[in-house]
Structure formats: structure tokens, C-alpha cells
Design a protein that fits this description.
Distance between the termini: 36 Å
Number of strands: 2
Strand order of the largest sheet: 1-2
Structural class: mainly alpha
Number of helices: 3
Radius of gyration: 23 Å
Length: 97
């Protein structure tokens, strides 16, 4: 199956499954507690995004670093990106992070 079809299927099915679960759980524990759980989980998500997400400065630095590497790379080179030091000499363009 094509990856695009899988992603599209998931984008359609996951919200439907989520709504069904909300209704089923709401019928078991009650609508008030279901809404409370939704609000609490969204507040926790907002807190985590605000306090633990990378800053715009970090993201900009990462993209600028990637851009500088891509500019230096020869046109027909196969990138071989690895972390650490290697003594091997290869015909591929490599980047040590």
C-alpha cells in the first residue's frame, strides 16, 4: 500500500476513533469527568509545549547549520552523516557532528 494512502487513512480514522472513545468513556465515567480529563490533558500539553519545546533561536540555528552543510556538499555526492570520529576515508561526503 502506498505511504500516502496510509497517512490519509490515518488522518481520517484517528479522529473518528478518538470521538468514539470519548463517547464510550463518557458513558462509563460520566460527561463531567470526561470533559475534565480532556481539559486537564490539554493544559498539561500546553505547559509541556511552552516549557520544554525548543526555542525559535535553537530551531533557526539548526536550519542554518543544515543549510551550510548542504551548500558545502558536492552536487552528486551521497551524504554520509554520522556522529563521532571515523578514521575511514570514503568517497562519500561526510559530516562529523
Amino acid at each position: 500500500m502506498n505511504i500516502k494512502k496510509i497517512i490519509l487513512t490515518l488522518l481520517v480514522l484517528l479522529p473518528i476513533i478518538e470521538i468514539i472513545l470519548f463517547v464510550e468513556i463518557g458513558s462509563i465515567i460520566g460527561s463531567f469527568y470526561t470533559i475534565a480529563v480532556i481539559i486537564i490533558s490539554s493544559l498539561i500539553g500546553i505547559y509541556l509545549i511552552k516549557n520544554h519545546a525548543p526555542s525559535k533561536k535553537d530551531i533557526k540555528y539548526t536550519f542554518l547549520k543544515l543549510k551550510s552543510v548542504l551548500i558545502k556538499m558536492p552536487i552528486n555526492a551521497i551524504p554520509n552523516i554520522h556522529v563521532g570520529h571515523s578514521d575511514k576515508e570514503e568517497n562519500k561526503f561526510s559530516l562529523e557532528l
